[in-house]
């Protein structure tokens, strides 16, 4: 039987900032139970009462030592809030 894929945003890592022109920068960590690519693009999301349309600017993967195969992804996105 295949192992279930688990992927979730690490809530405490979520950071959303706005600049004077209205550009949104989103930083967050995503935890995944294997080393394969992320299943979600995280480019169209709602947090609080706002909808965000973003593009992925960078992503880096790092194994979580001693976790039995879990990995943490650090994502940086930019876009706008609707």
Summarize the entry for a quick read:
It contains no helices and 5 strands.
Overview of this protein structure:
The structure is a single chain. This protein has a five-stranded antiparallel sheet with strand order 1-2-5-4-3, with no helix packed on it. It has one domain (7-67). The chain is built from no helices and five strands. The radius of gyration is 14 Å and the shape is elongated. With 82 residues, the protein is an all-beta fold. The protein has strands spanning 7-18, 24-32, 44-47, 50-63, 71-81. The model has no long low-confidence stretch (mean pLDDT 92).
Structural class: mainly beta
Poorly predicted spans: none
Helicity, as a percent range: under 10%
Q: Characterize the largest beta sheet: strand count, sense, and whether it forms a barrel.
A: 5 strands, antiparallel
Number of continuous helical runs: 0
Spatial ordering of strands, largest sheet: 1-2-5-4-3
Radius of gyration: 14 Å
Cα(first) to Cα(last) distance is: 42 Å
What sequence of helices (H) and strands (E) makes up the elements? EEEEE
Number of strands: 5
> What coarse outline follows from CA principal-axis ratios?
elongated
Tally of structural domains: 1
Percent of residues in β-strands: over 45%
Overall mean confidence score, pLDDT: 92
Write the layout of secondary structure elements.
Layout: E1 7-18, E2 24-32, E3 44-47, E4 50-63, E5 71-81
Antiparallel strand pairs: 1-2, 2-5, 3-4, 4-5
List keywords for this structure.
82 residues, mainly beta, 61% strand, elongated
């Amino acid at each position: 039987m295949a192992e279930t894929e688990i992927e979730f945003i690490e809530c405490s890592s979520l950071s959303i900032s706005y600049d004077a022109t209205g550009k949104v920068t989103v930083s967050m960590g995503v935890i995944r139970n294997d080393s394969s690519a992320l299943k979600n693009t995280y480019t169209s999301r709602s947090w609080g009462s706002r909808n965000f349309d973003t593009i992925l600017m960078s992503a880096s993967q790092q194994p979580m030592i001693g976790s039995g195969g879990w990995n943490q992804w650090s994502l940086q996105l930019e876009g706008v809030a609707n």
